[in-house]
Specification:
Blueprint: H1 2-30, H2 36-61, H3 69-97, H4 105-117, H5 119-129, H6 137-140, H7 146-175, H8 181-205, H9 213-220
Organism: Rhodococcus wratislaviensis (Tsukamurella wratislaviensis)
Protein name: Possible membrane protein
Transmembrane segments: 47-75, 81-100
């Protein structure tokens, strides 16, 4: 399970990292008058809408005649991967708005995992780095020795597996309930966990900057 989880997280971080800046720019172009804080809030709403919809859709498969349990479980597995990748995209996008750049996949993995874990992730980062920071996301992208980063990520992964598995196991069983009940459970459950990701992200990065970096450069010029 640990290998599968790391693979999903790395896949989300590696594939989405080059597209994060374009994604943020696309949202900005669609809403040019909005501040960084408003753009972050808009991305949070898009994330919650996406994961809620995916949870409801997978839960609805159990109500379709002829769809077996194996097929339903396979759909749940794919949806779980989608949830993790969506959470990775949100985390990296919010980091981009804050001007935080994760240089390599180890930093991206630590950033995504620590935000997903929230307070327990913050404690692991602080213990590993020896840095006590209100916005602990900045500590991850500072100069951390390779062995320290890898050890910290291993601890974050083990903690995340325990916490994530406990939350998702009951939700997975709920999604397999037929007669449309699974759809309601899937949507509501995904939204609840998604709100936790949003809350942790806000605590990790703090308030959004008042201005965009390009606006600041224009003012300075």
């Amino acid at each position: 399970m640990e290998k599968v989880l790391v693979s999903v997280l790395d896949n989300g971080s590696r594939l989405q990292a080059p597209a994060v800046a374009k994604y943020v720019e696309w949202v900005r172009r669609s809403h040019p008058a909005e501040s960084p804080a408003q753009i972050v809030e808009r991305m949070e709403k898009m994330f919650l809408l996406a994961v809620t919809g995916s949870g409801s859709a997978v839960g609805a498969t159990a109500a379709i005649p002829g769809v077996g349990t194996v097929a339903s479980i396979a759909a749940v597995g794919a949806e779980s991967a989608f949830f993790l990748e969506a959470a990775a995209l949100l985390t990296l996008a919010v980091a981009s708005v804050h001007g935080i750049s994760a240089a390599d996949h180890q930093q991206r993995r630590a950033l995504v995992l620590s935000v997903a874990l929230g307070e327990s992730g913050m404690e692991i980062v602080q213990k590993a780095t020896g840095v006590t920071a209100k916005n602990w996301a900045t500590a991850i992208t500072s100069r951390i020795p390779g062995p320290t980063m890898k050890g910290m990520n291993s601890t974050l992964v083990r903690k995340f597996i325990t916490k994530y598995a406990a939350r998702r196991s009951a939700l997975i069983l709920g999604k397999l309930v037929p007669a449309g009940i699974g759809a309601a459970i899937g949507g509501a459950g995904n939204r609840a966990i998604g709100k936790g990701v949003v809350k942790n992200s806000r605590e990790a990065f703090g308030p959004a900057p008042a201005r965009w970096p390009d606006e600041l450069r224009a003012i300075e010029a």
